[in-house]
Amino acid sequence: MPAKKKKTSKAKATAKKKATATKSKENNIENSDVEDDELFKELLEDEDDEDEKSEEGTEQKESSDEESKDGMHTIQYNIRDLPGIGATIAKKLIDVGYSTVNSIAITPARILIEEAGLGDKTAAKIIQAAREALNIGFKTADTVWERRKNLARINTSSTDLDNLLGGGGIETGGITEFYGEYRTGKTQLMHQLCVNVQLSKEEGGISGKALYIDSEGTFRPERLIQMSEAKGLDYREVLKNVIYARAYSSDHQIMLIKDAMKIIVEKNIKLIIVDSLISHFRAEFIGRGTLATRQQLLNLHLHDLLRLAEMYPELAVVITNQVQSKPDTFFGDPTRATGGNIMAHGATVRIYLRKGKGEQRVAKMIDAPNLPEGEAIFALTEGGIVDVDH
Ligand SMILES: Nc1ncnc2c1ncn2[C@@H]1O[C@H](COP(=O)(O)OP(=O)(O)O)[C@@H](O)[C@H]1O
Ligand SMILES: [Mg+2]
Predict the structure, then answer these.
(1) pLDDT of amino acid 4
(2) Residue 285 and residue 196 share a domain
(3) CA atoms of 94 and 79, how far apart (whole Å)
(4) Could you tell me the distance, in angstroms and rounded to a whole number, from the CA of residue 214 to the centre of ligand 2?
(5) Largest Cα–Cα separation, the chain
(6) Nearest residue (CA) to ligand 1, atom 16
(7) Domain residue limits at 81
(8) Is 78 within the bounds of a domain?
(9) Which residue puts its alpha carbon closest to atom 25 of ligand 1?
(10) How many CB atoms lie within 10 A of CB 269?
(11) Domain for residue 146, yes or no?
(12) Residues 303, 246 within the same domain
C-alpha cells in the first residue's frame, strides 16, 4: 500500500476518534481501538484504488450512484445541484459518506451537524432542499409499491426458512433480526448469508459483498470455506468478498456502522451483518441507573442501521441477538429479545430461533409487517444450512 494512502487512512481514523471521544466520555467507556479502526480502514482500502481517485474530486463517488430504484425519484440528482451546497459543503458531506441526495434527505439534521461539521442553519436548509428535490412527503401507494417491487432477496439455503420470510429469503431494504438462545444457529446463518449474498440472482443471491461486524468474536473463515465448498464455489473468491470488522465496544460498534456508510456503494456491499447487536451494550451498561442511556444509544444505533437499509434498497441489514432462558436470569416471554421494546420497533422482520432435535433448528416468525405467523425447520451441517426432509 502506498505510504500516502496509509497516512490518509490514519488521519481519517484520528479525526473519527476525536469525534467519538466525547461520546465515550459520557458513557464512561474506554475506547482503545484506534489500531483496529486503522486496520479496518486499511483492509477496506486495500482492494482497489478508488479512494485515491475520489479524493481528487467529488465527481467519482457521485457518478457511481446508480439510477435510483427506490421509487422516490427517477432522476439521479447530484448533491452539488442542491441549492445551498457549494464545493466545500459537498466535500464535507461526501467525505463522511453522504454522497447522494437521498442520504441527505433522510438523515436527521443533528447527525449531519455532528458528522459533517455543518452549521445548524446550513444542515436544515440542505435537508429541506434534498427533500424538495426528491419530492418527499405524502406519496401515493403506487410510488411505495414501486420501491417495494425493487427490493431483492438473499436465500438462506433453507427453502422452509426462505418461505417463512416471504419466499426467496432475507429481504433487502430493511432490517431482519434473528434472536434465540446460545447455539441456536444464529452465527451459522450469518455465515451462510455471507456466502449466499455473493451468488447471482438466478442462484439465490444478489451478486454483492458482505460486511460482517462481529461483537462476540465468533466469526470463522473456516466455516465460510466449508460452506463455499459445499456449494462448489471457489472459497478464495468468497473470502475476498466478506469484509470483516471485530467490534470491541458498543462505541466502536456504533462507529463501524457509521464508517460502513462510506463504503457501501464503492465496495458493492449488499449485506451488513451485526452479530450480535446488543452484547456490548448489555455488558457495558449494567444496573438500573444505566438502562435509559443504554436504550437511547441502542435506539440511535438501530436507526443508523435502518437508515442504511432505507438509503440503499439493494442492501439487507441482518442482526442477531442472544436471549437467555435460565429461570433465574429470565422473566417474561422467551420470544422477547433482550433489547426490549426498542428492538421490537427497530427491526422490520423478527425471527425467533430455537433448538429442535439433533442438528435441527426451528425458526418462528414473530414480527413482520406483511407476513403471516409460522414456523420453519432447517438443519445445521458442516456444509452450512440445509433443508430437512419432513
Ligand atoms: N463445522 C460444523 N459442522 C456442523 N455443525 C456445526 C459446525 N459448526 C457449528 N455447527 C452447529 O452450529 C451450532 C452453533 O451455532 P451458532 O450459530 O454458533 O449458535 P449461536 O450463534 O446461535 O449461539 C453448533 O451447536 C452446531 O450444531
Ligand atoms: Mg453466535
Answers:
(1) 44
(2) yes
(3) 9
(4) 9
(5) 62
(6) 185
(7) 47-134
(8) yes
(9) 183
(10) 23
(11) no
(12) yes
